[in-house]
């Protein structure tokens, strides 16, 4: 049996977003115990030229929802206002994205390997097949932002480990 585009995307996003939500729970508990303002944690960066924690989570969510829509040939949802201020707000964002991608069925996404996906990057069109888009653009970006969010919490002192990042395997 071959691996379909649905199996390579939606369940992957669901599992990793679930793990990210649990990491946020631990981050929230840590912030409360250490009396750290969640807004400060949300503004934390690994290095000055990288985006802060809150944006890392928002972008990971955006890659999951945008790529699901593109692979299904559906309209990409309008961008969010990115107004999340607390880890609880970010958990609500993750829950909303989880609910959105749960609505996609395998028959909408399977077979999208050859579907043309056109992105505009720095004003220039980038044409990819669905397979190229998922495997070489959407998933790497999604994991980059999930990993960076995890790393920011870890370097801040939140007691999380590899099992937390991986979630339920």
Automatic annotation (TrEMBL):
Pfam families associated with the record: DUF1993
Listed InterPro entries: DinB/YfiT-like, DUF1993
Domain of life: Bacteria
Name listed for the protein in its UniProt record: DUF1993 domain-containing protein
């Amino acid at each position: 049996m071959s691996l379909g585009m649905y199996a390579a995307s939606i369940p992957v996003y669901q599992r990793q977003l679930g793990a990210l939500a649990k990491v946020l729970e631990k981050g929230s508990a840590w912030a409360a115990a250490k009396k750290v303002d969640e807004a400060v944690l949300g503004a934390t960066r690994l290095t000055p030229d990288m985006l802060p924690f809150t944006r890392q989570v928002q972008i990971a969510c955006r890659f999951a929802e945008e790529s699901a829509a593109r692979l299904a040939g559906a309209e990409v949802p309008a961008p969010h206002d990115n107004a999340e201020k607390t880890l609880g707000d970010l958990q609500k964002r993750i829950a909303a994205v989880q609910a959105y991608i749960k609505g996609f069925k395998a028959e909408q996404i399977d077979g999208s390997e050859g579907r043309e996906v056109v992105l505009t990057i720095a004003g220039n069109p980038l044409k990819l097949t669905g397979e190229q888009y998922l495997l070489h653009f959407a998933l790497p970006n999604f994991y980059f932002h999930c990993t960076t969010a995890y790393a920011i919490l870890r370097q801040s002192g939140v007691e999380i480990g590899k099992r937390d990042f991986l979630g339920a395997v």
